[in-house]
Specification:
With about 200 residues, this protein is α/β, with parallel strands linked by helices. It has six helices and nine strands, in the order E-H-E-H-E-H-E-H-E-H-E-E-H-E-E. Strand 4, helix 4 and strand 5 form a beta-alpha-beta unit. Bound molecules: 5-O-phosphono-beta-D-ribofuranosylamine. The site of 5-O-phosphono-beta-D-ribofuranosylamine has 14 residues, from helix 1, strand 5 and helix 6. Pathway: Purine metabolism; IMP biosynthesis via de novo pathway; N(2)-formyl-N(1)-(5-phospho-D-ribosyl)glycinamide from N(1)-(5-phospho-D-ribosyl)glycinamide (10-formyl THF route): step 1/1.
Length: about 200
């Protein structure tokens, strides 16, 4: 799992893996910056952690290679990016092709990018939501695996709306990862089928 911030989505998966019959184990948690709450949560759960900072590498290509190797060392079946605020590089996506999942706090294809909640609020939508999708080479453009709507309420701030979305995101991510682990999926063009 890859994180950059508070890691509340990571915590939801950590909690789920502690329930009987949950079909997934977490191999490791990686970050692009040190000393974040997400890493502390992972350490608290006894999970291996690693940090691969862009600034420690001469360029993006070298960072991409280092991140790919750091993740590959844990031999994951699936890589989950949950609040990881860097665009994954071509080497990484080539190595884990079709096996990288991202969660985004909006109903894609509306409001891609790093400011999805603020953008939705500014636009004035009455409904936004959460999207879990496979990662391709674009920014939040990969095939959609799961989506759930969340209402925008009068007086919402970016924080209040984001927190309502994250409540849904946590459940959607946990459910989607479990379904993928149990059933697998086939991807035909943009269509993702979980049997
Ligand atoms: C989530 O809304 C995720 O979709 C977005 O960043 C947030 C991560 O939250 N990209 P947390 O760090 O897991 O609390």
């Amino acid at each position: 799992m890859l994180v950059s911030g508070s890691g509340s989505l990571l915590q939801a998966l950590i909690d789920a893996t502690g329930t009987p019959g949950f079909p997934v184990t977490l191999a490791a948690v990686g970050a692009d910056r040190p000393a974040i709450r997400g890493l502390a949560r992972a350490e608290g759960a006894g999970l291996p952690t690693f940090t691969v900072r862009l600034g420690d590498h001469p360029d993006r290509e070298a960072w991409d290679t280092a991140l790919t190797e750091a993740v590959d060392a844990h031999r994951p079946d699936l890589v989950v990016s949950a609040g990881f605020m860097k665009i994954l590089g071509p080497r990484f996506l080539g190595r884990f092709e079709g096996r990288v999942l991202n969660t985004h706090p909006a109903l894609l294809p509306a409001f891609p990018g790093a400011h999805a909640v603020a953008d939705a609020l500014r636009y004035g939508v009455k409904v936004t939501g959460s999207t879990v999708h496979l990662v391709d080479g674009g920014v939040d453009t990969g095939p959609i695996v799961g989506q759930e709507a969340v209402p925008v309420l009068p007086g919402d701030t970016e924080d209040s709306l984001h927190e309502r979305i994250k409540t849904v995101e946590r459940r959607l991510l946990v459910d989607t990862v479990a379904r993928l682990a149990r059933e697998g999926c086939t991807v035909t063009g943009r269509e993702v089928n979980i049997p």
